[in-house]
Amino acid sequence: MKNIRDNKRIISTIVCVLSCFAFTNVSAQDVANGSATANVQTALAIVSTQDLQFGSVFQGVSKTVANSDAAASGIFAITGSAGSGISAYMTLPQYISTATGDDRMNIAFNNSDLSVDSTSNADPSAFGDG
Amino acid sequence: MKRNLLILFFCLLLASTHLSAQNVTVNNNLSFGTVYPGIPKAISKTTAGLAAEFFISGTAGNEVTIEFALPTYMNIGSSNMQVIFQETDCAIDTSATPDQSNPEFNNLDPWHTLTYRIGSSGLYVWLGGILVPGLTQSEGSYASNIVITVTYTGN
Q1: Which of A34, A39, A67, B84 is most exposed by smallest CB count within 10 Å?
Q2: Helix (H) or strand (E) holding B7
């Protein structure tokens, strides 16, 4: 009688565990947490810090302003993420005109009229010396 | 009584062995790297090292369902940045020689449940996406969670 009770107990234990096993087999689940990452750089910004100033000029007398002229050359400051490459384009005028547009005069930009300084102490008169 | 305990022990051992047979791990996170305000950036699911890669191990031949909980934004503090997962941004390879650049099952929809069988070399899942930083997006390191859930179907 005792053996029968023991056997029943064993069978019920096995059935119970195997039931759990069978259930696990159907619903076994695993979850993993990944991520998406990105590093946003500083936005580009450009400001005109100084206009190109020819000052006083006289009829028939050409005047040149060097790009190394700290007080009169046009200066633009570009800020953004240090070390990032950028491209810059300029749309240049062919003439300077009066406010009303009644009169105008020729302005020429040579292909060496531009300088760029990316050092921490930009100085038109000492280009690239930082 | 001892015999009962011994049987119970072996049954539990068997059951626990079976539970550990299925596993999903993150091999690689989706990395957009450096991005600039106003310039969207896409990472293809076939780009090794940048696309997210998940590996599912388990009994070869068993069928599993794969479900993603995908973010719509990446965050840093109170700043959000839109991230888009298109309906072709997922790929799976269950072959013996998984190849991310030419996956067995390509252009899958990560927004819907995917059902595949684990191969002899497991099952690889790759995920790409598109990041859309705003013109005035604040600088910084953004992140968001991608949750993958893998479930045996019993088939």
Answers
A1: B84
A2: helix B2-19
Q: State yes or no: pLDDT of A21 exceeds 70.
A: no
- Which structural domain range is residue B79 located in? 21-152
Sort out which chain B residues have CB atoms less than 8 A from A38's CB and list them.
31-33, 35, 41, 74, 81, 131, 133, 141-143
- A50 in a domain, yes or no? yes
> Taking an 8 Å Cβ-Cβ cutoff, which residues of chain A contact chain B?
6, 9-10, 13-14, 17-18, 20-21, 24-44, 81, 84
B71 within 8 A of A36, measured Cβ to Cβ: yes
Query: Contact, A10 vs B4, CB < 8 A?
Result: yes
Confidence of residue B20 (pLDDT cuts 50, 70, 90): very low
pTM of this structure: 0.70
Domain membership of residue A118 (yes or no) is: no
ipTM summary value: 0.82
Instruction: Please report whether residue A86 resides in a domain.
Output: yes
Confidence band for B17, pLDDT divided at 50, 70 and 90: very low
